[in-house]
Automatic annotation (TrEMBL):
Residues 392-411 are annotated as: Disordered. Keywords: DNA damage. This is DNA polymerase. It comes from the Bacteria. GO terms for biological process: DNA repair.
Length: 493
């Protein structure tokens, strides 16, 4: 087994900073500290430069910095942030366990899929940065060992696959050693390795069985049990913005946090989305005047790739003009479909090529608009000029299946002229660059009487002296029988 521990040492501070960050402003903010029970627990860099320290009373902290902003710890906001981090972690493994200030993940089965533990660790930290969370990360064969190593701020991405790495950790990293730190320091026990070399019977009598059990779990000598995080049955994500956003492109930073949660939830559910809607909730001057702008995005092929969805959203936001400042975002999955994980392929397959085409269509729709991208479709009308329409492409193009529309028994050209071209006659034969020879026909069409645009024609396939195949017809009513009644309607490629 291989575990990753993701420790969030500044979680209370990060949740407060996320609500203060404005992507449209780079102004210097005031110092910030988080207080619990009237004592400073966490503080940002500016507060640290002013001399603020953990454990300091609120009154002493304000005396050092008159501009210091002190915020009470918000446990509900921290829980929401942990849920967001867990949804992102589900991209890499279904075995995710929550800790009070971090996550534990078992990734042994995911190493080959993602190209090794280092790549998983790098992507995890990138996602934490997008979510606005500071994290330290460590590997270990045991969950407790990884968690102990991740709590050391200097470790960054650490590997505790060797027991010697655990021996060097300070004893204060052990949760059950906290009540006994003074005693341990007095006897010269400063590291976990030194504590482990003490007699087990004496450790149990002086410090209790829990401390010894934590040591055993860290070194794999005692089994561990974890309650795995389960994604909610219904996805709903909303984000209140720290201030009024007046430019649509500035919303991408916040919207990406929602996309990471959505794609993690989809991965856990073995599903994908064929369309999403980002709701922009605007500031209202009157309490009852609450307006929202939907921003739908249609996908040619269902996906749960966060980078692909971010790209489509960036295209839509780039051409959007806000009707009013935005104060909140919410994300909805319009249509969820089951989708297993993609298999890796050595050579290109038709499915992979179809996916490339679908993604091109999605980008064009996001950039130009849904109704700007059209497709050919058959229509139930015998008149050739009305039998093909170009509706907007609102769903994925069909692949490999037969059209539900009936096919014509006779051959018809793919290229029709915008208007039938009248032909002259020479020697009682239709003429186009040269006299035409009729090869097949007639195909008689009599229709259109119900909409006052009747078509009474006999169609033929003809050939000229240059061996070009033409699709011509002869009108059978006097109204269309001008110039001998022959018309050129299409060309065969």
């Amino acid at each position: 087994m291989l575990w990753i521990a993701l420790h969030l040492p500044q979680l209370p501070l990060d949740t407060a900073l996320r609500s203060r960050h404005n992507p449209e402003s780079d102004e210097h903010t005031t110092p910030l500290a988080i207080a619990e029970n009237k004592r400073i627990g966490w503080y940002d860099r500016q507060a640290g430069e002013a001399g603020i320290r953990a454990g300091m009373s609120e009154s002493n902290a304000r005396a050092l910095s008159a501009s210091l902003q002190i915020v009470a710890r918000d446990m509900q906001a921290e829980n929401r942030a942990l849920q967001e981090a867990a949804l992102w972690a589900l991209h890499f493994t279904p075995h995710v366990a929550l800790r009070p200030c971090g996550l534990l993940m078992e990734i042994a089965a995911s190493l080959r899929l993602f190209g090794g533990g280092e790549r998983i660790a790098s992507k995890l930290l990138d996602g934490m940065d997008t979510l606005g969370l500071q994290a330290s990360l460590a590997f270990a064969p045991t969950a407790t060992g990884a968690w102990l190593q991740a709590q050391c701020p200097q470790s960054g991405i650490a590997d505790t696959s060797k027991t010697g790495a655990l021996d060097r950790l300070p004893v204060r990293t052990l949760e059950h050693a906290a009540p006994h730190l003074e005693t341990l320091n007095d006897i010269g026990c400063h590291t976990i390795g030194q504590l482990r070399r003490l007699p087990r019977g004496g450790l149990t009598r002086r410090f209790g069985r829990q401390l010894l059990g934590e040591l055993d779990r860290a070194y794999g000598q005692e089994a561990e049990a974890h309650a795995w995080f389960e994604a909610p049955t219904v996805f709903h994500a909303a984000l209140e913005l720290p201030s009024r956003i007046e430019h649509a492109e500035s919303l991408l930073f916040a919207a990406r946090r929602l996309l990471l949660q959505l794609t993690g939830w989809l991965t856990a559910r073995h599903a994908a989305v064929a369309g999403i809607t980002l709701w922009l909730h605007h500031e209202s001057r009157r309490r009852r005047d609450h307006r929202s702008t939907p921003l739908p995005i249609l996908l040619g092929m269902a996906s749960r790739d966060p980078e692909h969805l971010t790209l489509l959203l960036r295209e839509r936001l780039a051409r959007l003009t806000l009707i009013a400042p935005v104060i909140e975002l919410s994300l909805e999955a319009d249509r969820i479909v089951e989708q297993a994980a993609a298999n890796t392929e050595l050579f290109p397959t038709p499915a992979a090529q179809a996916e490339t085409t679908s993604r091109l269509i999605e980008r064009l729709q996001s950039r130009l608009g849904v109704h700007a991208v059209r497709q050919l479709a058959l229509f139930d009308d015998h008149r050739p000029e009305r039998s093909v329409i170009t509706p907007a492409l609102t769903s994925a193009p069909r692949r490999g299946g037969q059209s539900s529309q009936p096919r014509h028994a006779t051959a018809r050209p793919a290229w029709l002229l915008p208007r039938p071209l009248p032909l002259s006659t020479q020697g009682h034969k239709p003429f186009y660059q040269s006299p035409l020879t009729l090869l097949s026909g007639p195909e008689r069409i009599e229709t259109g009487w119900w909409d006052d645009k009747p078509a009474t024609r006999d169609y033929f396939i003809a050939q000229n002296e240059a061996h070009c195949l033409l699709w011509i017809f002869r009108a059978r009513v006097p109204k269309e029988a001008e110039s001998g009644g022959w018309f050129l309607h299409g060309l065969f490629g």
